[in-house]
Amino acid sequence: MENLLFGRSITRLYDLKGSSRSRYNLDCNGNNKVLLDQNLIEAMLSSPISVGNKAKRLLERAAWNDTSFLASRDVMDYSLLAGVDEENHELILGIIDLMRHIHGINI
């Protein structure tokens, strides 16, 4: 995660699971606060993140390839870290928090 955000001016940081159940950070003010799925949904109403068509296709392909690879390695749980760098107008994404399921034991 440190390498993903190195040298970036991140103004919003989201740990996304693709679920809305218990995925809201009530304490979202201040620096270095990691927000969750429901925080992103709420923020999109007032401050949407725009991604062009080409970037969207590349993002979809990368997410498909990465999640297919994780599934082939029996990774059953992970998060998508999304950082917004408003200064450089960039969206930084990476897969984090991998958890594997092997022979009935979560690792």
UniProtKB/TrEMBL annotation:
SUPFAM superfamilies: SAICAR synthase-like. Residues 1-107 form the PIPK domain. Keywords: ATP-binding, Kinase, Nucleotide-binding, Transferase. The keyword Membrane does not apply. It holds the Pfam family PIP5K. It comes from the Eukaryota. PANTHER family: 1-PHOSPHATIDYLINOSITOL 3-PHOSPHATE 5-KINASE-RELATED. This is 1-phosphatidylinositol-3-phosphate 5-kinase FAB1B.
